[in-house]
Write a structure and sequence with these properties.
The complex is a heterodimer of chains A (239) and B (263). With 239 residues, chain A is α/β, with parallel strands linked by helices. Helices cover 38% and strands 25% of the residues of chain A. Chain A has a domain of 135 residues: Rossmann fold (3-Layer(aba) Sandwich), CATH 3.40.50. A 6-stranded mixed β-sheet of chain A has the order 6-7-8-3-9-10, sandwiched between helices. A 4-stranded antiparallel β-sheet of chain A has the order 2-1-4-5, covered by helices on one side. The radius of gyration of chain A is 18 Å and the shape is globular. Chain B has 263 residues and is mainly alpha-helical. Chain B has one domain. The longest helix of chain B has 32 residues. Chain B starts with a helix and ends in an 8-residue tail after the last helix. Classes of the chains: A alpha/beta (239), B mainly alpha (263). At the A-B interface, α1, α2, β6 and α3 of A face α1, α4 and α10 of B.
Chain lengths: 239, 263
Amino acid sequence: MFIEIKKLSKSYNGYFAVDNINFNMERDKTIGLLGPNGCGKTTTIGMMLGLVTPTSGAIVLENKNINTFKRDEILKRFNFASPYVELPKKLTVIQNLEIYGRLYGVDDLKTRINDIASDLDIKNFFNRKTGELSSGQKNRVSLAKSLINKPEILLLDEPTASLDPDIGDFVRNYIQEYKKKNKITILLASHNMSEVERLCDSVIMMKNGKIIDNGTCVELIKKHGRNNLEETFLKLARS
Amino acid sequence: MNFKKIYALGLRHLYLIMNSFPRVLDLIYWPTVQIFLWGFISKFFTLNSEYYNNTVGIILTAAILYDFLFRASISFNIMFLEEIWSRNFTNLFIAPIKISEIIAAITLTAILRTLIGLVPAVLITIPLFGVSILKLGIPLIFLLLALYLFGITLGLLVTSGLLRYGPSFENIAWATLFFLAPLGCIYYPIEILPDFLQIIAKLLPLVHIFEEMRNILMTGLVDYMNIIKSIFISIIYFSFGIMIFYISYFGAKKRGTLINMGE
């Protein structure tokens, strides 16, 4: 197995934000992480990124506990994008991409930036300060940063939150196309059920820090006797 | 240490300065105002007091060196705060850069910010007040080194507080140096302090730095023991600052505060 999450827990003063969760991620598959606000999705992502120390349990990558890797060795295989995390606002788009490209040690950075910028259609505002961009533009720049190092593992936290339907669709299409052309394993936390149905190979449902169900979208819909993933989510969230 | 990564993070702060002329102006403005103020105050004392006769150089040199310390510390804090203000904290801490490289990058870039602010002010004092800190000669390099190390240490302690308590600790960032200034004996000899405070003051490198500065300017002689003492104490504090920073970083990971650090 590529990534194994084993009995992972995180507690704050006795309150379990993540409570003994187990799941596996196959290489080059996309897993959806669903659940109501405060269910532990972001904490799980934080633990995978090394931003949060688990209270117990382990994250295993290719049969090796993630803690045994050197920080800079492991993190260059990962990347992350979220609308709640921004790039330096006073720097231009190209400056931000250059700096993150350098931090991730990207070879032939100019070409990489050009390629990714063409694909994400961000070249026309390369020299504008990131803080002056619309949320749709910022979102695409953030996605460009998250792919700058061609990560093996990409963690996306609500990548299309607060985007208009057109830009949201553009981003979803882009992720779908990127997956076809590149080897990448994605963990996608989202509240957009159609997005999850479209992009994810399987889904994990969380509530109160626990995994309450998992399977493919079709399996979950069928199992809970609902018409679509949204209805299934509502049933599980309200149960 | 990977110097390419240290350079990349330094470049982030360099771009920030280069992208904003008001930011450069702000860096120059405060040290210049400070130097002007102390220059005129010391000139007044020189003309109107027997005690302060010929001390314009000493007071102004002390003001410049203190400002160097202040700018070094504030530069370190500001560069760290910039990541919080811009909500870039998570991106930085998930990048494959070691914590030691982050500290090194901020430490090295802070000197640039400090010099941008201070060099114009220092140059102004030569024609305007006839005072040049270069009169301190070669020992000036060592005094600046000790001051810089101590300034960065204060920056490390404040940023450790930011990691521990979050952005609400920001106000402390501005207050740290004002708290230590009375004990630093910047403008007066250590004998002015009560005995028990003298003991505490001697544990700070500032006393040794400023005592030596006065010694060089008044006697023209250099007491290298004072300089060695000040650098040695600064290195101890610097090592302590790095240790506290690491403790705070691991504590923040445990408390989960790194993930949502923002304004």
